[in-house]
Amino acid sequence: MNRQTQSILTVIGLIVLGVILWLLFSGKSDSPNTNITTQDQPTAVMPDTKLTFVPALLEIKRTYDQRGKVMLRNDGESPVSVRVDCDPPDDLNSGFIGRGSRDWFEPTALTMGVGETWAFDFVVHANATQRDTASIPVVARVMDSAGDWQVAAMGKVDVKIAIAPLKLNVQWEDGESPADQARLVKYLTITNMGVEIPNFTVNFTDQFADSGYPDMQDGPLFGKVLMDTFVERMHLQAGQSIKLRVWPRLSPSFIQLVGKIYLHGHNQMQIVDYEASVPEGQDVFVTVSRSTGVSGNSGDRCTNQGAASYALPPTGGTPATPPSNAGGYGGGGGGLSGSIGSSGGSLSGGLTDSGPADEEDEDEFAWGTPFGDVASASSSGTDKTKDTAGDETQAEESEDSELADQNLLDNSEALVEDLDEDAMIPASALGADLIPIDEVATTLGRTLDPNWGKKDELKPAHIPDELWEQFETLRDPQSATKETVVQAGKDGGVLVAKHNKRENTTALEFRNFGFGIQKGRKLNVGTPLVRNSYPVSQPTLGRTSSGKTVAAYSRPEGDKQIVTVQDVQTGKKVDIGVEGDQQATSPKIIRDPQSGKSFVQYVQDGQVKQSELGDDLTISKPQTIFAPQDKVQRILSSEPLRNGKQVTLAKTVNNKLLMKLPMQDKPVELDARDGSVLANADDSVYVALRTKDNAIVVKTSENDSHQIAPPDAGNGPPTLVRTAAGHPRVIYHRKLADSSAADAEQGGTFQADFIKGQWFPTKRAVQPEEPVTAAAVAVEFKPKYGKGHYKLMNTQIQLNGKTIGKLNERIPDGRYLY
């Protein structure tokens, strides 16, 4: 190949290569671009609109639900769909409602024609505002081509809030009962003489918190004065009165406290002067309860000889503090402690050193009239024998303890020597709500209980200021040892408990302490009237058609449970479930207000059944109310309706909550743990529930719902009752929270009332509205260790300071009904 031929081939190759490269790059540049930039996206287009808000002025009251109209005009050339909204200030909750607003579950638009003016409904809640005028921005939105709502018009709504005068009448009254006098309690009655106050608040300062509301955590008297009712943003109707129980925190050096209480309403304040002082010739003294808890017992018999006091949850439906008269008592406060489970009172036991005895009739049933006039009786047994197994250490300990007791007795006698022989003070007068109870509960980590005095004597222990520091040390669980407690008693300071011979390092020596100034010597006590020999459970009270009071309860019969209905006055009984294999449990007595007939409901073979109860205690053939697939375990609540019907709330063996209404074929399952029902004359129903997260909620037949108490692990089952005034009340008990928690709550009984269409704030149940004339109280004893670890003891069962039962020379074990 010559040079000329090579040159030609090279040129051809370069041309071919160039063509190939051109084709490659040309093809790539012509391919579609799949990466679209923002500049390539279409721009949303707003419709051509001309909307105008008509200037609006709303003159409203300083309360809830103030309504007016806001006008929007379509000055455009075509119809348009609009949606309105506003941006209110924090203290003036406002907004549009109805068509074209967010008030609907699914926001909707309103189509406005050309030239049309539409009046939108506008609502303002001015209950909490501190201002007299406001300007609220409003906007109208239309939808653009991309489907988004864009602002098309802006305006404002001027609001003028009427200035209502704060007209409150206040009156102080001194407490009359010994319990109130012991705590320097006063009662403040506040009556609204003006128009309704939507956000009435009582506190100790004229300052406001960051939230804009009156500060509830500040003021010269904050922490020094307590009230039984927490009044914050309460709706106080015109003419309505509230009565607050007010008392100071006492201490050994307390003499006088002076300050001011602030009443807030209508963005104004009224100041009330407060003063509390120890009466001339009286001193503050401290009382403590004995604890005989034993830790690490491994075979040693308990040799405690002091008095033990345990608090038990209250009977559902009764408040916590006894009235000043002797007509009756409400349910006791406090919670569960030790290893005793029960409902409705406090138990006090004086332990003796008697040897073992025959225990074949250990399970005992006591029935009586605990609130009647019964003869007084001694509350402490007498030692009949002495344990000779004690060593020298025990003898020394006994001598020290006797010296301490004698010092305390001397103190007590010195305090009451100038009083009449018949002067008396109930045990509850220096009980669970004495101050500083919240600090005590957290520090001691024990359930609160009423104090109990030896041999019916209230034993106040006078603590001089120089001994106060030592007493403070005794509140520390780590330092409450045998030596420190006995030594304090020998020094004349503190009520002590004699100890188990094994060192007690974990059980606290003091369950509670409190302060008071009233002094007394005697307690009135009662005794059960009749005793039988079988344990009972699930007690309830009711009336026959003629008004006789009857009790119903479950009890064992052979190897099954039956229901017994008993006439309280005569003692006559009738049993249900005796024949056949089917047992009966969980009785409820219902009285139909229309027909006057009475019925007894009970659970049999997993079904809820009902029989008519005659005045002579005859029982008709039972009818089945409902028989769910998931068998019923117990009836929680049952209420009569019209035409002989009823609503029933029951719990199944699988812990399902069922409610059966007469118009329903099957019961409805409720998403809750426990509940209670209350029926109205028109057959509408209230249902109080303890939800699965332990909140207390009340629902109505109209599916309205109101939370009475937020979730709290200590909340117990609620009870619905109707007060003497005729309005519904929900009551529940809250156990003491874990004392190791930073926000440990105080236990007790709480209530909320439904008056004039609204639920009032939850408050501590304080005073019953009427004396309780009869009550059924079931107590169950569960010794922590076997009976062989205990010696015989004398035991009292007390309800709010009144003894309703005694067990002498026994080791309590089993169920008892009073």
SSE topology sketch:
Elements: H1 3-30, E1 51-53, E2 56-60, E3 66-74, E4 80-86, E5 93-97, E6 110-112, E7 117-125, E8 133-143, E9 149-161, E10 168-174, H2 178-182, E11 186-192, E12 197-203, E13 225-227, E14 234-236, E15 241-248, E16 256-265, E17 268-277, E18 285-290, E19 307-311, E20 341-343, E21 346-351, E22 365-367, H3 392-416, H4 437-444, H5 465-474, H6 482-490, E23 510-516, E24 530-532, E25 537-543, E26 549-557, E27 560-567, E28 573-576, E29 584-591, E30 598-604, E31 607-613, E32 623-626, E33 632-640, E34 646-652, E35 657-660, E36 668-670, E37 674-679, E38 685-690, E39 696-700, E40 705-709, E41 719-722, E42 728-734, E43 748-755, E44 758-759, E45 763-764, E46 778-781, E47 793-799, E48 802-810, E49 814-817
Parallel strand pairs: 2-9
Antiparallel strand pairs: 1-3, 3-7, 4-6, 4-8, 5-7, 8-9, 10-11, 11-15, 12-14, 12-16, 13-15, 16-17, 18-23, 19-21, 20-46, 21-47, 22-24, 25-26, 26-27, 27-28, 29-30, 30-31, 31-32, 33-34, 34-35, 35-36, 37-38, 38-39, 39-40, 41-42, 42-43, 43-44, 43-45, 46-49, 47-48
Helix pairs in contact: 3-6
